């Protein structure tokens, strides 16, 4: 038996993308003990993985903060005598931990983020617009460097057991023959967010469709305030803000007929439960390698502009000043994609 430590601290979407790879490793090597080191807020993502996967908390804002905290974290991890360190993050904190383990002659490997090819993809002039390796492949390659080879076989975190619907039904109600749509209209950066006036046309269309029930996902005070306003305006939609934890959100997403998202963490959460996703891409692009697991590229809604993509994560300001990449997306196009999944037309 070998002990493998996997390091990935953030962000939600990136951590979620580790799961198909870790699941496949765990199923292929059931004799090995696999530990995922991440923030406590992500722990529930890993509850339904094979029994040889465990979770370790990195309290990076508390006792593991700073160099002293990282040394404490290393001392705690060292007690488990790991044989392999897989650094899925390759940032200062994970690099330091990996260095400490390497100094103790533990075999280590880290992710190749493909920074140069991503720069070529997003630069203003002479873009090299070609599909890059997916994040899943980049994670897999870390294990390959450590000598582990396996097939990426993953369908859903609920493949082995039925989700506990009793945890969500008091807040969602029974399905009763309705089609359930999840809408996650927000993202971390403006370059990923479909403008509200256009977004509302999509929401309004389905809010008045008696064949469906719409659940809107979000988090934080600002998003909750916006969604509550939408609920007042369109009684046909239901806000799920602050009503479910991540584990319960995954259960609800597993019951959806379709999830509509931005290029965001919710796209990846829905992908983990094998729910089809219609996603909007503005400043970012699926070619960067962050498409949801097993999602169809046909359901990535985007416009073809010479300036796209201008960013890998969507954090850069629009140098055109008009976010044409988002404003030029017709709401009817999004509605069409969703209806095709729901009603096959």
Name a few traits of the molecule.
345 residues; alpha/beta; Rossmann fold; six-stranded parallel sheet; five-stranded parallel sheet; 12 helices
Describe this structure in words.
This protein has two domains: 3-145, Rossmann fold; 166-343, Rossmann fold. The mean pLDDT is 97. The chain has helices spanning 12-28, 66-78, 92-103, 115-122, 135-145, 169-172, 196-207, 221-233, 246-255, 265-272, 324-327, 331-343, and strands spanning 3-7, 33-38, 53-57, 84-87, 107-110, 179-184, 212-216, 237-239, 258-262, 277-280, 300-301. It has 345 residues and is α/β, with parallel strands linked by helices.
Structural class: alpha/beta
Question: Helical stretch count?
Answer: 12
Average pLDDT metric:
97
What CATH first level of the largest domain would be assigned? Alpha Beta
Shape: globular
| Low-pLDDT segments, ≥5 res | none
Which percent range describes the beta-strand content? 5-15%
CATH superfamily of the largest domain: Glycogen Phosphorylase B
Count of individual beta strands? 11
Which fold name corresponds to the CATH topology of the largest domain? Rossmann fold
Query: How many distinct folded domains?
Result: 2
Provide a short characterization of the protein structure.
This protein is of the alpha/beta class and 345 residues long. It folds into 2 domains: 3-145, Glycogen Phosphorylase B (Rossmann fold); 166-343, Glycogen Phosphorylase B (Rossmann fold), CATH 3.40.50.2000.
What is the secondary structure topology, with strand pairs?
Blueprint: E1 3-7, H1 12-28, E2 33-38, E3 53-57, H2 66-78, E4 84-87, H3 92-103, E5 107-110, H4 115-122, H5 135-145, H6 169-172, E6 179-184, H7 196-207, E7 212-216, H8 221-233, E8 237-239, H9 246-255, E9 258-262, H10 265-272, E10 277-280, E11 300-301, H11 324-327, H12 331-343
Parallel strand pairs: 1-2, 1-4, 2-3, 4-5, 6-7, 6-9, 7-8, 9-10, 10-11
Helix pairs in contact: 1-5, 1-10, 2-3, 7-12
């Amino acid at each position: 038996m070998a002990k493998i430590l996997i390091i990935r601290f953030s962000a939600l979407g990136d951590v979620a993308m580790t799961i198909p790879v870790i699941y496949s490793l765990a199923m292929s090597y059931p004799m090995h003990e696999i530990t995922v080191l991440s923030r406590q807020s992500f722990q529930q993502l890993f509850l339904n993985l094979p029994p040889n996967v465990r979770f370790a908390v990195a309290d990076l804002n508390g006792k593991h903060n700073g160099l002293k905290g990282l040394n404490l974290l290393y001392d705690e991890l060292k007690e488990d005598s790991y044989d392999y360190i897989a650094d899925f993050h390759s940032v200062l904190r994970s690099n330091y931990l990996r260095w400490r383990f390497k100094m103790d002659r533990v075999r280590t490997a880290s992710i190749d983020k493909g920074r140069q090819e991503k720069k070529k993809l997003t630069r203003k002039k002479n873009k090299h617009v070609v599909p890059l390796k997916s994040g899943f492949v980049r994670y897999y390659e870390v294990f390959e460097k450590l000598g582990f080879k396996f097939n990426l076989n993953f369908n859903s975190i609920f493949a082995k057991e039925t989700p506990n619907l009793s945890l969500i039904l008091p807040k969602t109600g029974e399905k009763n023959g309705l089609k359930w749509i999840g809408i996650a209209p927000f993202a971390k950066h403006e370059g990923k967010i479909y403008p509200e006036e256009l977004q509302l046309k999509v929401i309004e269309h389905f809010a008045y469709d008696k064949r469906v029930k719409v659940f809107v996902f979000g988090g934080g005070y600002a998003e909750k305030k916006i969604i509550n306003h939408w609920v007042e305006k369109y009684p046909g939609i239901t806000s799920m803000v602050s009503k479910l934890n991540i584990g319960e959100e995954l259960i609800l997403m597993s019951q959806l007929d379709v999830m509509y998202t931005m290029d965001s963490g919710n796209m990846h959460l829905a992908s983990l439960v094998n729910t089809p996703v219609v996603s909007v891409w503005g400043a970012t692009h699926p070619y960067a390698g962050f498409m949801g697991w097993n999602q169809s590229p046909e359901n990535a809604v985007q416009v073809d502009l010479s300036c796209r993509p201008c960013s890998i994560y969507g954090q850069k300001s629009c140098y055109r000043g008009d976010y044409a990449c988002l404003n030029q997306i017709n709401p009817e196009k999004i509605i069409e994609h969703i209806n095709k999944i729901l009603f096959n037309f």
